[in-house]
Design goal:
heterodimer, A: 647 residues, 22-stranded antiparallel β-barrel, 6-stranded mixed sheet, 3% helix, globular, B: 5-stranded antiparallel sheet, 1 helix, 29 strands
């Protein structure tokens, strides 16, 4: 990650290799604590804040505290990164999923402090259930990364790094938000201790919205120029509470024990598509992650042992067996429940070998389970063994890795290799990588039987391979990163019509996705920072037959994010635009989601002491016709006021 | 011409050659589930209209009789005779003596005073029986004959000839027939009388027959997969194949147009295909719908227009096949949020009657004309 001066530091930055990083890792401080600097900024490699498991992957670090004066969900912060496409089923608090490099939401891992999270039935994680205010940063690593992160990382990995107590961090923070559509939020944290002693952090986040935003749609879309009519979104309210407990303490010798718990609970309406609203359907969810890790040096090596478990529970009310809405409490409208959980134990050893190698080896094992009305009870054992090396020869660094995963009866080996090269003394780095991995079918795909969904316990894993290459220039005022990738997917799980009236998953899909990712971060005069992220994507269906050669739906061929921000001791402001090209909505290239332009802006000032007041506006163009997945409307103009302070 | 006749002609001209025809009611509610002979009186279903046929001025619609939450049949299938002008709805119970002879009725065909119905049964397997082709006598307004489908066959689509009632299969791409005289299975009755296999797309999985019909004396049948579709032609008496042509993805229904072609709607790729019959069949893409979730279910033809139903966007369209530059949507109507329209009948070039599956009603929406 290039580290700009505090005043100019961008909210996103390009992650760099750990091998190069360790020697240059700077101390960081919160932007709002430091006066603006006017001298040229030094861009320093700080890979330790990037991914430690995939140090040479093309990745982006999103610093959560850069958005302290803004209202940002996890999905909104992630959308500032190249290679990321976020899809939402409506406005704030509604289900949101992530696509990395055109892969499906199921094909990307989301880790909380290294712990893989699971959605209901073991599938995609709903980003709206993740508390943004409890995070320190997010690391988005792109590519087939099964060798580094395990089975399932076909599009890439998002590592959520929860807030941690720091020696330089004040002991208490509080933040209040009030905005359009009855949106209210509060979060705060308290921390104690610091480096070299016991420390702890407790944080809590509460949010609610009534979600009743106006939107517009055509009632006769086949008639050119037909009018748009205004509607108000119903049953789109949501509330959520989340907490984070984190503590660490030195124990015997240099060993350290740290414990993490994050819990979240919420409820929301499920409003349904604009053409078929579902005013009675509700969803409640609970989730928790608990982990403990012991780290101790053993000679030159570092030994780590870890145990963790996670549980997510989701309940549907007012949702009929056929997926339509119904009245909760009716005899034929039973509530349904689904829970998914996992427990793991993991041991890892990291050790230098000679001057050139740093080897890491790990083994992990545990159990995944699911239980629910739709799937019944199922469990499967999981086991993994991984080996990786950081190997340097002069200006060349090699990162070979291999991992074997056994997921139930599925077994696969995921090899990968990446390399970085600094061929000149100039601040230019070349990198390239390749990987091969698989994704085991989720419990839902194997066993869910509900309404028109039929199970297929004979599903095989999906497989993918990818290659990528890139170049990064890190100047004093400018960081530029450009990369290209190609991925091939086989045996993709696709839901097919299963006559007479059901759909069932089969391993019949194949795809090729190629793309270009560009990112730039620049320090401008007047204390401004500019960021740009651009992604070009060509996602092609390669399944033999009629669909061959057509585009995969819901993959935007172009996406551009531009942001200019300013932060000083007393004032801060930002303006950003997120442009998404028109994208296909079906597999035949005969239906398209229109291009969208979202413009947001905000400004704030430090009123007194550490008290900041900010105001922001989203969708400044007040485009009320925007929709996302499956004809779910998105909100028009919304405004919010944010107050935050140190305690 | 004497003065009186001239005055009469002028009066006729001024009055539009007669009385203005009555307009259909904008909304007609279908009968409540308690009137649909529920299997369990304490748990009646709801009328879920699917396919329609226009007989004189009456719109006949097949009614699923489904639990509104589980969509499991809560009673026998019904046929509703709907007078769109008065709003009167006559119900004909298709269940027969055991109330299970026809469950989940689908496509209906009229021939003189008879209507033939393909009944699909309960897709969930909860309710036994009900897969059949049945005959309804419109004079007596009663179920007269029923022929149960062979084991494993789910009837879909029905086509009527002088000697046979043809029907398709929603599970296997094949055509079967019922002898019209004896009302027993003919084609598909057994090894000696096999069903007629359909040519189907080579791509996609699980080909099935969504619709069959008679056009210009020939039997036509659709074979659909999720990726593609085929319209196949057969001799209407023997079932001998007479060619086929590819259409769009997962076709749902077709209709003979006024200019001798066949219009096919394709639900998965939102397209309308026009097939020209001849020695061989040829097809051309006529129109791609703008709405991303059109989910086309029905097409009916009248003069130079075809009328389509897009259940996903809750709309119906009027398409001018003779428009300059090719077929074009010239008018459209919305049937209401969450209505899921399924079939329509044009009463004239500017008036349609639509049955809504989800809201269990019949509407005559005002068509908005393209300026």
């Amino acid at each position: 990650m290039p580290c700009f001066s505090a005043a100019l530091r961008p909210s996103i930055a390009v992650a760099r290799t750990a091998a190069l990083a360790l020697a240059f890792a700077p101390s960081r401080a919160r932007a709002q604590d430091q006066p603006p600097r006017t001298e040229p900024v030094e861009i320093v490699v700080t890979g330790s804040r990037g991914s430690t498991r995939a140090p040479a992957a093309q990745s982006t670090v999103v610093e959560a505290d850069q958005f302290a004066g803004e209202v940002r969900s996890v999905a909104e912060m992630l959308s500032a990164s190249p290679g990321v496409s976020v899809h939402a089923l409506g406005g704030p608090g509604q289900a949101t999923t992530l696509s990395l490099r055109g892969a499906s939401a199921d094909q990307s891992l989301i880790l909380l402090d290294g712990i893989p999270l699971h959605g209901p039935g073991g599938g995609a994680v709903d980003l709206a259930t993740l508390p943004a205010a409890l995070l320190d940063r997010m690391v988005i690593s792109r590519g087939v990364l099964g060798a580094q992160f395990g089975a399932g990382a076909l599009g890439g990995v998002v590592e959520l790094v929860p807030a941690r107590p720091r020696a330089d961090r004040a002991r208490g923070e509080a933040r209040l938000v009030a905005g359009s559509f009855g949106t209210l939020g509060a979060n705060g944290s308290a921390a104690f201790g610091g480096a070299g002693e016991s420390s702890g952090l407790f944080a809590v986040q509460l949010d609610r919205t009534n979600g009743a935003f106006p939107y517009e749609q055509q009632l006769t879309p086949e008639v050119g120029g037909s009018p748009y009519y205004e509607f108000t979104r119903e049953n789109a309210d949501a509330w959520r509470g989340a907490t984070l407990l984190r503590g660490s303490t030195p124990i015997a010798g240099d060993a350290e024990l740290d414990v993490l718990f994050q819990g979240s609970l919420g409820e929301r309406g499920i409003p349904g598509p604009a053409t078929s609203p579902t005013p009675r359907s509700r969803e409640v969810d609970r989730s928790g992650v608990l982990g403990a890790r012991l780290r101790t040096p053993a000679g030159p090596a570092l030994l780590s042992a870890r145990a963790w478990g996670d549980l997510s529970w989701i309940g549907l009310r007012g949702v009929s067996a056929a997926g339509a809405d119904c009245t909760d409490g009716d005899p034929d409208c039973p509530r349904s429940r689904q829970s998914t959980g996992a427990v793991r134990g993991e041991v890892e050893v990291e050790s230098p070998i000679g001057d050139a190698h740093r080897v890491r080896a790990s083994v992990a094992g545990g159990v995944d389970r699911t239980s629910g009305d739709a799937t019944g009870f199922h469990r499967r054992n999981v086991f993994a063994a991984a080996l990786s090396d950081d190997f340097r020869i002069g200006r060349l660094a090699l990162f070979p890795a291999v991992r074997a995963d056994a997921v139930g009866s599925d077994f696969g080996v995921s090899p990968a290799i990446a390399a970085t090269l600094r061929p000149w003394n100039a601040p230019v780095e070349l990198r390239a990588g390749a990987g091969l991995s698989f994704r085991s079918p989720s419990f839902s795909e194997l066993y869910v039987r509900q309404g028109g969904l039929a199970p297929n316990p004979d599903l095989a894993p999906e497989r993918a391979r990818s290659v990528d290459a890139g170049v990064t220039f890190r100047g004093r005022q400018l960081t530029l990163s450009a990369g290209a990738f190609a991925s091939w997917y086989h045996d993709l799980i696709v839901y097919e019509l299963f006559p007479p009236a059901a759909v069932k998953p089969f391993n019949v899909g194949a795809a090729r996705i190629v793309g270009i990712e560009l990112q730039a971060v620049a320090a401008l005069p007047l204390g401004l920072t500019a960021e740009l992220a651009y992604t070009a994507l060509e996602a092609t269906n390669t399944r033999p037959g009629t669909l061959e050669g057509h585009s995969l739906p819901y993959r935007p061929p172009h996406r551009l994010f531009v942001r200019v921000a300013h932060h000083s001791d007393r004032f801060e402001s930002f303006a950003e635009a997120n442009a998404t090209a028109s994208m296909p909505r079906n597999q035949f290239d005969t239906a398209f989601l229109p291009a969208q332009l979202l413009v947001n802006a905000g400004a704030g000032t430090r009123i007194a002491g550490s008290l900041w007041i900010d105001v922001e506006a989203k969708n400044l163009l007040d485009d009320r016709t925007m929709q996302d997945l499956f004809q779910y409307p998105l909100p028009g103009l919304s405004v919010a006021a944010i107050a935050r302070m140190r305690l | 011409m004497n003065r009186a006749r001239i005055v009469a002609l002028l009066c006729l001209a001024a009055c539009g050659h007669g009385l203005t025809p009555p307009k259909p009611l904008e909304h007609i509610a279908l009968p409540a589930g308690s009137q649909l002979d529920p299997y369990d009186a304490s748990h009646p279903g709801e009328a879920r209209p699917l396919y329609t046929a226009l007989v004189g001025t009456v719109v006949y619609a097949s009614l699923g009789n489904l639990n509104p939450n589980t969509f499991i049949p809560a009673g026998p299938g019904f046929l509703a005779g709907i007078d769109p002008i008065s709003g009167k709805v006559d119900l004909i119970n298709l269940g027969g003596a055991d109330r299970h002879q026809c469950v989940n009725p689908g496509v209906i065909r009229q021939d003189a005073q008879k209507i033939y119905v393909a009944c699909g049964g309960d897709f969930s397997g909860t309710v036994a029986g009900g897969q059949a082709v049945v005959e309804v006598d419109l004079t007596s307004r009663a179920l007269t004959r029923a022929a149960a489908a062979p084991e494993g066959v789910v009837p879909s689509g029905v086509a009527v000839t002088a000697r046979k009632i043809w029907f398709g299969d929603s599970v296997t791409p094949q055509l079967l027939s019922v002898d019209r005289a004896t009302f027993t299975l003919a084609d598909g009755a057994g090894a000696g009388q096999p069903a007629i296999a359909l040519p189907c797309p080579t791509t996609g999985k699980f080909p099935f027959v969504p619709y069959v019909g008679i056009v210009a004396g020939d039997l036509y049948a659709l074979c659909a997969t999720t990726e593609a579709g085929v319209l196949a032609r057969f001799d209407a008496q023997t079932g001998a194949p007479k060619g086929s042509v590819a259409v769009g993805a997962q076709p749902t229904q077709f209709a003979a147009t006024g200019d001798g072609r066949i219009a096919v709607v394709n639900s998965n790729d939102n397209t309308l295909t026009l097939v020209t019959p001849g020695t061989t069949l040829s097809a051309q893409l006529a129109l791609t719908f703008k709405s991303p979730t059109a989910t086309l279910q029905d097409v009916k033809a009248r003069n130079r227009f075809v009328f389509t139903v897009a259940s996903g966007s809750n709309t119906v369209q009027k398409i001018d096949l003779s428009a300059p530059g090719g077929p074009k949507v010239v008018a459209e109507a919305n049937t209401g949020l969450n209505s899921n329209p399924f079939n329509l009948e044009p009463l004239d070039d500017d008036t349609v009657v639509v049955v809504n599956w989800a809201t269990s009603d019949v509407v005559a929406p005002k068509l908005t004309t393209v300026q």
